Amino acid sequence: MAEPPLASTTQRPDRSPTARLEMTGIHVAFGGVTALEDVSLTVEPGQVHGLIGPNGAGKTTMFNVACGLVRPSSGRIVWRGEELRRLRPAQLAKLGIARTLQGVGLFPGMTVLENVMVGAHRHAKAGFFSALFAIPTADKDEERLRRRAMDALAELEATAYAGRYPGSLPYPVQKRVALARALVADPELLLLDEPASGLSEDEMHELGELIRSVASRMSVLLVEHHMDLVMRVCDRITVLDSGRQIAVGTPEEIRADPAVTEAYLGDDVDVDADAAELSTGRSTAQAAAGTEEATRG
Amino acid sequence: MSDLQTPAGAPGAASDDAPSTATAAANASSAAAGGGGRSFLPKTTLLRHLLVLALCAVGAVLLLEGTERSTNDQISRIAFYAIAAGGLTLLTGLNGQISLGHGALMAVGAYTTALLLDVEDGEPLPLAVIFLIAVAITAVVGALVGVAAARLHGPYLAGATLALAVGVPGLTLYFSDTLGGEQGINVRAPRAPDWFVDAIEAISGERGQGTKWLAYIAVVSLLITYFLLANLMRSRIGRTWRAVRDQEVAAELAGISLGSWRVLAFVVSAAAAGLAGAVLAIVVRLTAPGSFLPVLSLSLLTAIVIGGLGSLFGALLGSILLVFLPEWARDFGLEVLDMESAQASQAAFVIYGLLLVATMLFAPAGLVGTVRLALLRRRAARAAARADGG
Would you call A167 and B228 a contact, using CB atoms and an 8 Å cutoff? Predict the structure, then answer.
């Protein structure tokens, strides 16, 4: 079979990201309980924006508002210059928005490669009838998707697992596959929901570098409670507490913000380590991360 | 939206490299990972499937010409069961929707065919056209059912489709003027054309009429249906159906609209059931409500479960059992257990039930699925051994 030229079909354009996500004055109430109150957040093109806060601060709600799963009672969401209303999850991909799930959410009955190929759904061209009659263009389209998927797996260093089923793979590998499935869609905005949960220190470090590297071609909104990861990779950070926005700024500004420290100290349920880091910078590892951030920024 | 918080499915719990058991037979991968030297097989899906189709066609001719008239008739019956089961296995195995109403969809196809063949004077439409109309009408009915079904899950979907299976035969009594009521409609079976008679004469020297012609129609319908269904299953369409079946939220986030893909699966599946009904009408030469009782829908479901959910080959195996098992069971009862004829006929049901229970206990993935799982495990074990050695 004639091999189609690689460059035209599989390489992602090295476009510089241009899309901005602006959420302004977001209010969300669940049956009388206010979950979010006048929260605004802007993800600038090509930036990694962190969304942090103690448990129950409304991070996940804000995140779900961003991708249309939760409808705010008031507020505006503007994506690529157009206001988003009544968004259904299946429309996100078409708008160039990809998100990962807090778990992994891989399709257990499919190989890793097929999982990632499903992620490329919006780039598929062959329709129902070309599939029904197995018209060769459908094969070509499949081949194109397959290469895209293999490229995405290569970026995540998961090529070796392409033929395996997800259930048999270690959790960190599954997370990488899930990320490949989001990246293969070639989104302009990547929404990451707690991507570091369940990862080791080393893996978290690799994840941080990966997030930095994809930011050259897309904007990233990151919800995460591993403070050192957030501090290392984010360009800007929004801090929520009890449904309100208490701070926004660069990692250094956030670290120095007394309101943030107070919010975290007030909540000693499961982020006390983070709070300790924020308040004193005692931990050497985390202090090192801090310096690194300072030198880069 | 609690679905979004789904915890990671037990990391590392499954040590063997195998997909989820129940639908193992469905998961013939749509994409070969490594590429590399896959040698002598044709490269495109079309040529590969046409090659298999041609081999099966040759096999079918040998089978039909090498067996007696009564076996020809049994093969026709296997064919229409298998057409319907193939559509159902796509719906249930690939897309995860259960239907207990496919017998009713077969009735739609059968009655359409019977009515179109039953013309007062002159020639009816060509049979192929009648079949296509039957398929189209059943597909439309399937779309309507599918729209309702797309919103239902599990037991609710089973209940709703079962209502279809119970209700549709009743309709024939209500519209007894056109649909013939309890007696049904006698179907004027089409006559074999001369070229066919000559061809059969040349091949085996037999008379290619009546049962033989119908058997060929049934088998050709089966082959075409399986060719098309296999194309779909191996394509992006099949993969998208499986994605909808496996993980709704993740599928939606990939841009897949769950509802429309579910309806599409239902339409395809119904179209197959419609063709099955059309073949049934001419093979049995009668369409009556008694042929489409809910037990028909249940038989189809057991056929695909025993064969292996999601596998066309499994659906064919299940259909073969559906036709032959009662007979074998009867002979077994008559000859080995020395029963009376009536008792022996009853025994068929018991044996069928026992077989189903045994399958669920010992081979929950069905015949095809169990073999596939075993192969996958062996491959995984070999891969692991290689990794250890290297």
Answer: no
